[in-house]
């Protein structure tokens, strides 16, 4: 996969998720104190986990320091 910023080849990898959930949230939202809740308009990037760490697919461009995380459906 090529980087959408600089067109360099991106390296495939993952973001580890342990004891919670990985999500994107719009600017200006507060981080909730309860790990089972997410702010309004957020996009969930990983399943919720407490006991078993999981991996979220991600790509990194070492040239321009850009990370790309494909959004999967919750049932994937």
Secondary-structure blueprint:
Blueprint lengths: L10 E7 L5 E2 L18 E2 L9 E8 L4 E3 L8
Antiparallel strand pairs: 1-4, 2-3, 4-5
Question: Any overview of this molecule?
Answer:
It is a single chain. The chain is mainly β and 76 residues long. The protein has one domain. The chain contains no helices and 5 strands. It has strands at residues 11-17, 23-24, 43-44, 54-61, 66-68. Strands 1-4-5 form a 3-stranded antiparallel sheet, with no helix packed on it. The chain is globular. It starts with 10 loop residues before the first strand and ends in an 8-residue tail after the last strand. The model has no long low-confidence stretch (mean pLDDT 89).
User: How many β-strands, per DSSP?
Assistant: 5
State the oligomer: single chain
Biggest sheet statistics: 3 strands, antiparallel
pLDDT average, as an integer?
A: 89
* Tally of distinct domains: 1
Lateral arrangement of strands in the main beta sheet = 1-4-5
Question: Would you list the SSEs in sequence order as H and E?
Answer: EEEEE
Strand content: 25-35%
User: If you compute it from the alpha carbons, what radius of gyration comes out, rounded to the nearest whole angstrom?
Assistant: 14 Å
Q: Number of helical segments?
A: 0
Précis, in short:
The chain is an all-beta fold.
List keywords for this structure.
mainly beta, 76 residues, two-stranded antiparallel sheet, 5 strands, 3-stranded antiparallel sheet
């Amino acid at each position: 996969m090529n980087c959408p910023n600089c067109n360099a080849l991106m390296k495939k990898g993952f973001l580890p998720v342990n004891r919670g959930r990985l999500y994107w949230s719009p600017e200006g939202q507060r981080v909730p104190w309860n790990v089972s809740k997410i702010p309004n308009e957020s996009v969930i990037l990983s399943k919720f986990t407490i006991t078993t760490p999981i991996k979220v697919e991600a790509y990194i461009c070492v040239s321009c320091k850009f990370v790309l995380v494909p959004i999967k459906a919750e049932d994937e």
